[in-house]
Amino acid sequence: MNWAEFFYMGGRGVYVWGAYGVTFLVFAIEIALVRHKRRITLQQVRELREAGE
Amino acid sequence: MAINWFKYSAPSTFYGLAGKLIPWFALPAAVLFVIGLYIGFFVAPTDAVQGEAYRIIFIHVPASILSMFLYLIMAGYAALGLIFNTRLSSMMATAIAPTGALFAFISLWTGALWGKPMWGAWWVWDARLTSELILLFLYFGFISLHASIDDPRRADRAAALLAVVGSVNVPIIYFSVKWWNTLHQGSTIKFTGTSMHVAMQQAMFITLVACWLYAIAVALTRVRSIILERERHTKWVADLAEVKA
Lengths: 53, 245
Hints:
The structure holds 2 protein chains of 2 kinds. By secondary structure, chain A is an all-alpha fold. Chain A contains 2 helices and no strands. In chain B, helix 3 packs across helix 5. The chains are: A mainly alpha, B mainly alpha.
């Protein structure tokens, strides 16, 4: 099997890659969001600590 | 050996534990996705009836299973928080909800892309599809109800009630293909066994485990932020190395 055939997926390439592409895109977005949230929260907690001192 | 289980129900101890556990879930998740999809695309044969389009199953079925289980786990934690007034359980419920919604969305999305070539329609108002859509809306309801109430403890209780009542939908999704005459195909994996090719089973099982590990890693990361946010006025948060830095 060559790569062109692999991506063609028996004519169902759009559906198969559309399913996996969006899934992993959504995973990537969620990972970016939880990491962003972690940074923001830490920053807020730090500011609060400095203000309290 | 006496283990004090309640020790880890305190947000301050769980925060550290969760931080140590995250890489042990995240890394195997990535590795298992690669292995599972390798088997799914390069080892598993073409389906006799559905051709290559069936390969969507390796993400569709795990995502659907996760969307249902995560809902039950979320409702379970929410109920614990409601009954025992434990703060950490409510925080866990809040941390799981977005990931559950995400898996419900993936289930519907991949299902639509599978339905189009197989049934000729992206969407049908079939019992299975409709009850899964309701599941997605229940997640949205939980998240927005929680976000709309300022006092976090009151938000926990209100959202918990919604989660617990909504959990009746999960068995409806699961049994919908048996109870009603649906366009959606029946379960491929049954309690009595399966007719699936062994490589297909392996690929699906491995991606299912990968999805579980992913969900746990993401939920633990999220709950750590929630703990920090809610406990920000406490001394233990102010004393954390990452806060002092």
